[in-house]
């Protein structure tokens, strides 16, 4: 039976979080979500951080509906509407250009969507990228679209288009006014650099004060430094970063990652009124990383910060135990019963007296709430197991187990 004749078509997909090492900050077109510069990111492993989304279409549904982490949300929000419009347009286009039958009924079917994160949405970790990538991917499966999904995901959140692929991903800014060439592409697959590790240092679980969309709008309007960065700095950095990734050059990769994060936060300070996403603890982490690297005489670890105070630290597997010990030393965990280290197992290590002396920071108990240890991972997946569906046969969220 063709899928369009089924009473209920349901698919469940998962999608990853990504972290940019060359940052996206600023749009040249707010409606189409077109950036003022290209960006490059690392896709994080879904074993630690992922969004799961079920999309179901049925002729019996009377309206589009969406549930996020179990709560029904307003389906009318503009970004969500833009994604839905875009996927239905692609579905229509596909059917009308192929030598297939006339547009099937399923195109007019309403959709129910349910989405959950396996990490706290409010933890200040980028959930919108994984969320919109997962939405785009699941909608494409349910409506039978197999074209490039960059535009669908991008309309939800710019950085979401980079979560459509695993490994190392660039979002090419493109030149066209209609955005057709503003697409995400894989630079290298997740198997490319197996030693690379990612440590997320969760500093604060609070929601950010100034969201990315509003923040970057003010930056575009007021920061001459941002314009300079987009025009004169990022093009060279994209080429350099691509080279470092291809060559698995950690020194180059780490240095450029830190510089680009610092420049992004400099453009925030150059914004008027200024925006500041880093906290005192973030700055202490920056100091810790530079002390650690100076002690070793090379770039062993590298930080990057998005629109919030949490640090994402890149390093190689053999450095993880010592760096985690250094973080514990500088930010002694407060015994609140929670596990300080989540994700991939990390071998315990002790600090040498020399390194302890080199870490020129006053310990701040509880400054880092916990660490998530993860690695580079694959792109979105479709789950075949019907038990994974978040929506039941009636198209409503299954009661949480
Ligand atoms: C600092 O993709 O969240 O994380 O397109 O307005 O939804 P919108 O912004 P968003 O911005 C991400 C900004 C960043 C840098 C990055 O991920 O490249």
From TrEMBL:
NCBIfam families: mevDPdecarb (TIGR01240). Pathway: Steroid biosynthesis; cholesterol biosynthesis. It comes from the Eukaryota. Pfam families: MDD_C (PF18376), MVD-like_N (PF22700). This is Diphosphomevalonate decarboxylase. Residues 198-382 form the Mvd1 C-terminal domain. Its EC number is 4.1.1.33. Keywords: ATP-binding, Cholesterol biosynthesis, Cholesterol metabolism, Lipid biosynthesis, Lipid metabolism, Lyase, Nucleotide-binding, Steroid biosynthesis, Steroid metabolism, Sterol biosynthesis, Sterol metabolism. Gene3D superfamilies: 3.30.230.10, GHMP kinase, C-terminal domain. It catalyses: (R)-5-diphosphomevalonate + ATP = isopentenyl diphosphate + ADP + phosphate + CO2. The keyword ATP-binding applies. Residues 15-184 form the Diphosphomevalonate decarboxylase-like N-terminal domain. Catalyzes the ATP dependent decarboxylation of (R)-5-diphosphomevalonate to form isopentenyl diphosphate (IPP). Functions in the mevalonate (MVA) pathway leading to isopentenyl diphosphate (IPP), a key precursor for the biosynthesis of isoprenoids and sterol synthesis. The keyword tRNA processing does not apply. Belongs to the diphosphomevalonate decarboxylase family. GO terms for cellular component: cytosol. GO terms for biological process: cholesterol biosynthetic process; isopentenyl diphosphate biosynthetic process, mevalonate pathway; positive regulation of cell population proliferation. GO terms for molecular function: ATP binding; diphosphomevalonate decarboxylase activity; Hsp70 protein binding; protein homodimerization activity. Residues 382-401 are annotated as: Disordered.
């Amino acid at each position: 039976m063709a899928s369009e004749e089924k009473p209920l078509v349901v698919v469940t997909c998962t999608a990853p979080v990504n972290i940019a090492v060359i940052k996206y900050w600023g749009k040249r077109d707010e409606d189409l979500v077109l950036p003022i510069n290209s960006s490059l990111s690392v896709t994080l492993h879904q074993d630690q951080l992922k969004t799961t989304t079920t999309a179901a279409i049925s002729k019996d549904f009377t309206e589009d509906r969406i549930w996020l982490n179990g709560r029904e949300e307003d389906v009318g929000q503009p970004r969500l509407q833009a994604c839905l419009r875009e996927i239905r347009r692609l579905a229509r286009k596909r059917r009308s250009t192929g030598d297939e039958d006339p547009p099937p009924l399923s195109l007019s079917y309403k959709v129910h969507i349910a989405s959950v994160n396996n990490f706290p949405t409010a933890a200040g970790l980028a959930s919108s990228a994984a969320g919109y990538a997962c939405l785009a991917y699941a909608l494409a499966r349910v409506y039978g679209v197999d074209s490039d999904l960059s535009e669908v995901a991008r309309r939800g959140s710019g950085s979401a288009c980079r979560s459509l692929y695993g490994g190392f991903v660039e979002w090419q800014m493109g030149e066209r006014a209609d955005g057709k060439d503003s697409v995400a592409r894989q630079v290298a697959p997740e198997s490319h650099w197996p030693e690379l590790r990612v440590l997320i240092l969760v500093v604060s679980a609070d929601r950010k004060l100034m969201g990315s969309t509003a923040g970057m709008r003010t930056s575009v309007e007021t920061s001459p430094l941002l314009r300079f960065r987009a025009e004169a700095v990022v093009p060279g950095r994209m080429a350099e970063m691509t080279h470092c990734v291809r060559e698995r050059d950690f020194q180059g990769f780490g240095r450029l990652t830190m510089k680009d994060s610092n420049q992004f936060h400099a453009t925030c300070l150059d914004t008027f009124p200024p925006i500041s996403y880093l906290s005192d603890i973030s700055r202490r982490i920056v100091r810790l990383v530079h002390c650690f690297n100076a002690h070793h005489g090379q770039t062993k670890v590298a930080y990057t910060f998005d629109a919030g105070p949490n640090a994402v630290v890149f390093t190689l597997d053999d450095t993880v135990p010592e760096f985690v010990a250094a973080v514990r030393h500088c930010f002694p965990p407060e015994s609140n019963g929670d596990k300080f280290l989540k994700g991939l197992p990390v071998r315990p290590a002790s600090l040498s007296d020399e390194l302890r002396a080199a870490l020129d920071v006053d310990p701040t108990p509880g400054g880092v709430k916990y660490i998530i240890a993860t690695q580079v991972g694959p792109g979105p997946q479709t789950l075949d197991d019907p038990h994974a569906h978040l929506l039941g046969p009636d198209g409503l969220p299954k009661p949480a187990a």
